[in-house]
Fold Acid phosphatase.
Amino acid sequence: MILPRLFLFVFFFSLVLCNEQFNPHILPRPLILETTQLREVDNEVKLQCTSWRFGVEANNLNPWKTVPLECGEYVKDYMLGRAYSLDLERVSNESGVYAKSLKLSGDGKDIWVFDVDETLLSHLPYYADHGYGLEIFDPAEFNKWVDKAIAPALEPSLKLYKEVMDLGFKVFLLTGRSETQRSVTEENLINAGFQNWDKLILRGSEDHGKLATIFKSDKRSEMVKEGFRILGNSGDQWSDLLGSFMSNRSFKLPNPMYYIL
Ligand SMILES: [Mg+2]
């Protein structure tokens, strides 16, 4: 038993030596990294990734395609840990405080606009299988997930949704999903606990190819022309919130996994 093991050890050790000898791109490095050095590297990565996430949420990194490779674990920890939940709760609570501070006209024209994906419905189960944003977005794969209609609610958003409805806002859902996904979208929303919305607006054939900012601005323009007052808008993408006919107040939910222009 010992001889074969010894042979394997010598074999792999020789491979490592050969690799170092013939690969000119390997930088000289100490064989043993001190614990403190490892901790410093770890802290630096965390700081860099926190800085990256700040840039994402502040819309300073516009546009970006995927989570940087070195931040994959960081984003995963953020999404699965307490931090993401806390951030969602803060957005929901602050939105609720603002909503309650308004005096509605009572004519049924005061509206709150919600985006759907990563605003009302969570796609964490899908992104868990797709590297939490490390992979380039694959619309065909994502649509297969959407068709299952099993995305859970983001609970703090469901709380806000019920609050603004109880306060008397009309609730309009404005999503970049295609009109062909209307029935699965309705099914998923209802399964997740969302009910009684006043309008669900999806991309019609005339909207395909439009940037999200343009599509959503066009739809908000129609709302305003119909006499609605957009008092609140909740979305996980800046393209849900920016453009023309913007809401009186916009609330940005966190999303470090993907960016939609
Ligand atoms: Mg969204």
Q: What stands out?
A: The chain is about 50% helix and 10% strand. Residues 115, 117-119, 235-237 surround magnesium ion (CB under 6 Å). The chain has one domain: 43-252.
